[in-house]
What does this fold into?
Amino acid sequence: MTEKKISGFTATNIVVANMIGTGVFTSLGFQVASIHSDVALIALWIFVNVVGFLKHWDAYPFHLLNLVLTFQAAFAVPIVLMALNRISSRDRLAAQQAYQEGVKEEEELKSVMTHLEVQDEVMLQVLHRLERSDRELRRIARRLGIEDER
It folds into this structure.
């Protein structure tokens, strides 16, 4: 049997691949997952690295923390922009619908106003007819000698 030689990089990858899913990664992950505040997690990160109960894996000025936060921002920004895009599309559709409803309401209002104007004209015609009839009846009453009962 021949022995194969592997590089240090390949050996590291094999070790890391065998460790994924084991307690080395998951136990700390579950403990950190219980912290629901980003501010608390960052404060814990800085506290542990400044006080140094453990080995300083990210000493001041916290380059690894900066890298993590930069990656988080890099992934969060497109999501936020997509959400804002959807909101603006929804607002644009709502504004268009409100405009169309406003136009329809304006047309209905014009129709009602036109109808009321026609009714006003008809009422004025009826009033003029009544006034003419009243004058005619008074003239007839005067000829006949009947007194006005007002």
